[in-house]
Automatic annotation (TrEMBL):
PROSITE patterns: IF3
Protein name per UniProt: Translation initiation factor IF-3
Name of the gene: infC
InterPro entries registered for this protein in UniProt: T_IF-3_C_sf, T_IF-3_N_sf, Translation_initiation_fac3_CS, Translation_initiation_fac_3, Translation_initiation_fac_3_C, Translation_initiation_fac_3_N
Domain Translation initiation factor 3 C-terminal per the UniProt entry, residue ranges: 79-164
Keywords, sorted A to Z: Cytoplasm, Initiation factor, Protein biosynthesis
Region of interest called Disordered, as start-end residue ranges on this chain: 164-189
Biological role stated in the UniProt entry: IF-3 binds to the 30S ribosomal subunit and shifts the equilibrium between 70S ribosomes and their 50S and 30S subunits in favor of the free subunits, thus enhancing the availability of 30S subunits on which protein synthesis initiation begins.
Classification of source organism: Bacteria, Bacillati, Bacillota, Clostridia, Eubacteriales
Length: 189
């Protein structure tokens, strides 16, 4: 944004410090009016014909704008990708540990990359890896959606899970709660 003497056009549409329209004014006159009020003349719409300028405290405006940007950054959630590595012949207890880790990552709001590593001749049986991916997806179903289905890439099979939002979880709970209640209604005699 251009301010005060940086504005080089002949005339501008002037907006006062309280938001009222002051009309089309010569730039020097607008700068004089802003100077009398100890404020700055700021070009807010340079592409308009004539450009729109506003009388405001530019330092205060920049401070409030940076404050809003900081607040917006605080509310942002950075999504990380966590990885869970499995082998096709994993034992049940080890699978449970990996599934618990995946659920923990999903609850923290991170995506989970499930990698099934094949060694040697294990790659000849990709269906074992696919079954493992389906099993893990079923365990994580209350917490995750499958973003990318299991796909073989080289000697690895990769699947990506994304965390469900709170809204999605609530709607699923409501659907689950509706079914059994309707069946258990007793009629008075």
């Amino acid at each position: 944004m251009r301010i005060n003497e940086e504005i080089r056009v002949r005339e501008v549409r002037l907006v006062g410090s309280d938001g009222e329209q002051l009309g089309i004014v010569i730039t020097r006159e607008a700068q004089r009016i802003a100077g009398e009020q100890n404020l700055d003349l700021v070009e807010v719409a340079p592409t308009a014909k004539p450009p729109v300028c506003r009388i405001m405290d530019y330092g205060k405006y920049k401070f409030e704008q940076s404050k809003r940007e900081r607040e917006a950054r605080k509310k942002q959630k950075v999504v990380n990708i966590k990885e869970v590595k499995l082998r096709p012949n994993i034992e049940d207890h080890d699978f449970d540990v990996k599934a618990r880790n995946a659920i923990r990552f999903l609850e923290d709001g991170d995506k989970v990359k499930v990698t099934i590593m094949f060694r040697g001749r294990e790659i000849t049986h990709p269906e074992l890896g696919r079954q493992l991916c389906v099993r893990l997806a079923e365990v994580c179903k209350p917490y995750a959606n499958v973003e990318r289905d299991a796909k073989v890439e080289g000697r690895n099979m990769i699947m990506i899970l994304t965390p469900k939002t709170d809204v999605q979880r609530e709607t699923e709970k409501k659907r689950e709660n509706r079914g059994p209640k309707a069946a258990n209604v007793e009629t008075p005699e």
